Amino acid sequence: MSIEMKEPMKPKVIKADYTLQSKIGSGPLDERIVKRCQKVMDSNDVDFSPLAQEFLDKLDSAIKEAKSGKLSTEQAVEIMTQPVMQLKANAAIFRYELIGNLANVMLSFLEAITDLDDDVLAIVDAHQKTLSAIVIKKMSGTGGAPGKQLEDELKGACKRYFSKKPKG
């Protein structure tokens, strides 16, 4: 998914962290271990709600802090990005693809933000409230047609935001 940005952004170079590789080594993994891990993941019945709510609470706090005006745009975007990234990363593990998809759209939006204004905060706030409702209703999976509609609406809001911005 690509949100039409007003100008291409320069990529950030992030130095690789080899902590995991140092723990498990390199080279191919034993196929039996991979199958066992997959079985554990497929039979996972842990309730995602408390973890998701923790990230949503952090996002809500980040939005409030961003609204205070005490942070630079970069700082505000960073503190809002962190819980969204965590939601995206964890949602798939717990079979909440809709949350992962919506978080992915929001990450693309936040990465493209150059100015923090009321419209940005309103979009992020609506996103947080939508994800909270999904968690409360325990809408795991893709959410079907309503889930697709939510995703399309979020993409549309992001595109409308960027189309309103003057081209630099």
Structural description of this entry:
With 168 residues, the chain is mainly alpha-helical. It has a single domain (47-164), classed as HPT domain (Four Helix Bundle (Hemerythrin (Met), subunit A), Up-down Bundle). The protein has seven helices and no strands. Helix 5 runs antiparallel to helix 6 (118-136) and helix 5 (97-112) packs parallel to helix 7. The longest helix has 21 residues, at 144-164. The mean pLDDT is 88.
Keywords:
single chain, 168 residues, mainly alpha, Four Helix Bundle (Hemerythrin (Met), subunit A), 7 helices
Structure described in brief:
The chain has 168 residues and is mainly alpha-helical. The protein has helices at 19-24, 31-42, 49-67, 73-91, 97-112, 118-136, 144-164.
**Spans where pLDDT lies below 50 across 5 or more residues:** none
Cα-atom radius of gyration: 18 Å
The CATH homologous superfamily is termed HPT domain
Identify the overall geometry. Answer: globular
Strand and helix order: HHHHHHH
Query: In percent terms, what proportion of residues is strand?
Result: under 5%
Using the coordinates above, name the CATH class: Mainly Alpha
The helix content is 55-70%
* Structural class assignment: mainly alpha
Major sheet details: none
Quick check: average pLDDT?
88
CATH architecture: Up-down Bundle
Cα end-to-end separation: 23 Å
